[in-house]
Predict the 3D structure of the following.
Amino acid sequence: MKTVESIAKSLNGKKIILRLDLNVPLNRQKITDSNRIDKIIPTLNFLIKNKAKILILSHVGRPKGKVIKELSMEPICEYLKNKLGQNIHLIKSNIYNFKDEDLFNNKNESILMLENLRFYNEEEENNEEFAKILAGFGDLYVNDAFSCSHRKHASVFNITKFVPSYAGIQLMSEITALSKITKDITRPITCIIGGSKISTKINVIKNLISKFDNLIFVGGMANNILKNKKFQIGKSIFEENCDHIVEDIFDLSKKQNCKIIFPVDVSVSKKIDGKGDIKKINEVQKDDLILDIGPETLRILNKTIEESRTVLWNGPAGYFENENFKKGSLEIARKIVEKNKKNEIYSVAGGGDTVAALNSFNLTKHFNFVSTAGGAFLEFLEGKDLPGIKALN
């Protein structure tokens, strides 16, 4: 792929169409988590430094082609104004009603933002005419929205047919980090995988298990393993009808010489907002909720991480939102950070809940890479071609 950094010297005065993922959670038009915005600040600063004119494209939520005031880009535009110390104008006019010469008429404005792209049905339909109109607003297109690149949408895929297109800084850092997990591996490699649905991650496991030395199941994912092994999991979260998937994973791991690790003890409660009791997995009762891993499991996990050179983490170890059940996730994070500080491990974390946990522990910056992508993160690890990446190639 051609990268925007490779053409830094020719950006002066150029109009850059910059696709970002600024789809942050909003509560009454207030941003509740700015992580996705903060991650693209280096790209914006790079373009500003090279005196480019920037037209930001993004979306928020799922308005399904309707103009919904609560899903306006306005609060995000205001946040970026303050973060960058730059005047940013939000264009609310219908894009069919203005032309590229109407942009950047004010000499004091070098950054513009279009209103929510998903206010137009044509965006998610990957409408070619809509993509052509967007392409007409600039000289160059830059995709810095890895987390949208698994979608064949107009501003990600078809737009590249009509304007010279480049990969952004954040998108390249995401690909580089995930390539170190999938291709340029330093072994031993350990994958810590959680979440409630094992079926959503089976393809990731199948694609990468030959490269893993250790596969650690935690959280709701581990409950599926325990249930398959005939242990009582009480009222704990699990996925129905997935015994065949669990058996496939064990069969495949045996063939590929990958060690599977799952809890030997757990922290349980009768209710989600209760306090934790440590129990061995054969002591769990029918009215228990498994909400975290126990100390013996944590000891095994920490020893495994200690012996690893690469770690991929997707899914917290427990219900970290309750102080009583955050210890597993916190101690895993601390162990990885300890190894990172000694430059003894390469660490990648991804998935919404994992990122939220690391943010709550204030440990995000101590990982080599933390991905804010959800579906794109998993599809890349599955070995799929992402349409947005393919379009740039």
The longest strand covers residues 15-19. The chain has two domains: 4-169, 185-382. The domain at 4-169 is CATH 3.40.50.1260 (Rossmann fold). DSSP finds 14 helices and 17 strands in the chain.
